Amino acid sequence: MKKVIIAEKPSVAKNIADATSAVRKNGYFEGENYVITWAFGHLLQLYDAKDYDPEMKQWKIERFPFIPEEFQYKIKTDPKKKDQADAGVVRQLDIIRRLVDRPDVEGIISATDDDREGQIIADEIIGYIHPEKPVERILLSEWTSREVNRGLSELIPNEQMQSLQDAGFGRQIADWLIGINLTSVATLKFRTGKNVKLLNVGRVIMPTLKIIYDRDKEIEAFQVTKYYRLKGTFETEDKKNFDGFYYVEENEKFDKPEELEEIRSRIEGHPARITSKKVSQKKEYAPYLFNLSNLQGYITSKYKGWTSDRVLKTAQNLYEKKYITYPRTASSVLDESLIDKTRKVLEIHKKGNPHEDQIRFHTSKRVFDSKKVESHSAIIPTYVIPKSLNEGERLVYEAIRNRFLAQFMPVAVAEDTVLHLSVTDVELPGDFVAKGKIQLEYGWKLIEGVDSKEVTLPPVQEGDVVTLTKAEVNEVERKPPKHHTEKTLLRVMETCGKKFEEEDSEEMMMAILSGFSIGTPATRAETIKKLKDAGYIKAKGKSLTCTDLGKVIVETFPARDLFDLEYTGRLEKTLSDIEKKKFQKSDFIHMIEEFVRESVDKIKNDTVFGGKVTLTPLHEEPAGICPECGSPVVETERAFGCSNWRNGCKFVIWKDDRFITSFGKKVSYEMVKILLEHGKVGFHGCVSKKGNKFSAYFYYEKNPENGRYQWRLEFIDPSAVSRTQKGKEKQRTDSEDGREA
To answer: Are 336 and 369 in contact (CB under 8 A)?
Structure first.
């Protein structure tokens, strides 16, 4: 007799087949003891509202809230034909059903990822085909042959995973209730006439938007202020120089430059005595092993063009290729049960490393601590050495491997020196402080390539006299906070806005593992992508900021609890408690249903949300009048757009317009103002592709065939015609990508 193994993806099924010597068939693998098939993510989905009630095909605000009495599942729909089932999914479900029904099959093994989302991928299938055969579960953190065979010998009944299943289905239903009801009602309320802008409303997306909004507002409200420092340059008897700053009661920042100037004038050229010299050695431990959020933050901040979503997908590929352990983890240490396995993995990976002789295995609590592991340990390499990786996989893999090796390198040691200097013959309320740092032992920094910022002080002793050769007052401008990046946003989501004195402190690690967070390691990258796709945020370089639409949503959306980090954290914590059997799924769903009813009622009755909305202009005066509808055209960060965009007007001139910039010119407030007033704008010194200079009038005109605005140019200097395409008028469609201001 055999057992059917259901893997989450074909690549994982292949790994299991390799471990069990199974051979490929049509839609499955088969060996002596196992028949291995697969899903490809979720094969089923919750019913749409219209599946319960045909009248829900048409959105009408009075039909909401819509809460089914019982939630049902259907085959996943075709992404291009929403009214049809996905043909590939239908085929795969038929294969799974036939394999399970075979008379030589005695049971089923669920081999999906060991988390709540992975749990329900198989449970959905099992619930749909209703097999009358026992179901077991294999729980693995890597898909190497050694681990697969170990896991198959330690199967547990799938019934023991009920709490994880409840958390998974609870999350799915909660997000359906909030998404379907609040998205529908918000969109209906926000629409104007036939113009509909779908508003994506969700349990995780809204508080994440609020985090970015709050940082934007903090930057907007920042008042530029200055402080002043008095810097002294000292010279020893053997002509060695070093710098120090003037302190009064441990403070070196002063509001008034006059008092520092007065001190400077009295002390320059005077001798100074070293009143104290303190030398201390400081141990610098390697950063903890990566969890998913830390890995995403590390890669996105270090390498240009990376997003957290791309890091997750790359890590998932490495995991499915058996090169790393399970990546969707919140833990930064390893379970103590992995000590022997980790020792063997280390022996494999340290061979040939330039610092092999310094790499020593140990069982420090910074690496092994079961109390700080929730479900899955930190990400480490497996014993399988990659044969070939693409460039993206190589960057992520090397980051994980190096962080792993760094744990077993010597601790880095730095020597800090602090000198206090008192200017002689001058009475001052404070003294000068000079600080130096020397790296005595580089340790783990050699593996991770971390540069140590050293400041070398000359070999002076307490009591030595030096000369203050130069003193100067420096003006320093206090800088505003920086816009969030994916790295900083992930950290805020991970800790639900809570700040800790030290990153990766024990307190922080335990807070993360409590489940009190915004989303999970597996969903945060997707949430950031959803915010971009919804048009709520935009990325410029690594910085994330709110769009005008995002600001409107945060400022006017009536269901305010969704923006409350504490509220969202409690919801995520409740799902974590369901996993731990501390809370019932039914109570959680009831709580969500009540929230949905109250929120829908608030949106329906709100008098502000969905009202007249205008863009936030950069100039008080509009640039001109919209040729489409007669409304003011205003300047925003990215474009000059019609202020009546809310009612459907799409007139826009983008600042990064490729047609204008191709001639070495730019779209400016003055340029658009002239264009809208006179119907054309003249440019001198335009540069053609061949490098020739010319002058021309630029027109922005509507194409009657497609309704889009296009540029047309008319040469001012007739002699320029022969130098640029023989006088042909050049056109380009500005709104070809459908962007809105």
So the answer is: yes
Task: Confirm if 100 and 129 have CB atoms less than 8 A apart.
Answer: yes
Reduced to 3 states (helix: H, G, I; strand: E, B; else coil), residue 28 is coil
Strand stretches in 339-464, DSSP E? 412-423, 431-441
**Looking at the whole model, is its pTM more than 0.85?**
no
For a pLDDT cut of 90, what percent of the chain falls above it?
A: 70
- Kind plus residue range of the DSSP H or E element containing 46: strand 44-46
Domain end residue (candidates: 382, 406, 430): 406
pLDDT of residue 509: 60
Residue 504: pLDDT over 70: no
Q: How many residues are given for the chain?
A: 741
**What are the tens digits of pLDDT across the range 160-217?**
999 999 999 999 999 999 999 999 999 888 875 555 578 999 999 999 999 999 999 9
Q: Which domain holds residue 347?
A: 322-406
**Virtual CA dihedral for 57, 58, 62, 63, nearest 10 degrees?**
0
For residue 634 the two structure tokens come to: 């205003």
Residue 598: Cβ within 10 Å count = 13
Q: Is the pLDDT of residue 377 over 90?
A: yes
> Which segments of 21-58 does DSSP mark as H helices, in order?
49-52
Residue environment code for 466-480, b if the CB has 16+ CB neighbours within 10 A, otherwise e:
bebeebebeeeeeee
Give me the amino acid identity at 299: I
Cβ–Cβ < 8 Å for 263, 510: no
Helix, strand, or coil (residue 85): strand
* Residue where the block lists tokens 């490729």: 658
| DSSP state letters, 456-513 | PPPS--TT-EEEEEEEEEEEEEPPPPPPB-HHHHHHHHHHTT---SSTT-HHHHHHHH
Inside any domain, residue 301: no
* Integer Cα distance of 717 and 730 in angstroms: 16
Answer whether residue 159 is part of any domain. Answer: no
Alpha-carbon distance 119 to 111, whole Å? 9
- Spatial contact of 234 and 434, defined as CB atoms under 8 Å apart: yes
| Whether residue 501 sits in one domain with residue 468 | no
Name residue 85's beta-bridge partners: 77
Report how many domains make up the chain: 5
- C-alpha angle with apex 604: 599 to 608, nearest 5 degrees? 100
d(CA 110, CA 104): 18
* 612: in domain: no
Contact indicator for 613, 606 with CB cutoff of 8 Å: no
Contacts of 644 (CB under 8 A, 6+ apart): 626, 629, 631
Say if residue 257 is preceded by a cis peptide, omega within 30 of 0: no
Q: Which of 536, 570, 605 is the last residue of a domain?
A: 605
Which residue is associated with the tokens 């008897």?
Answer: 237
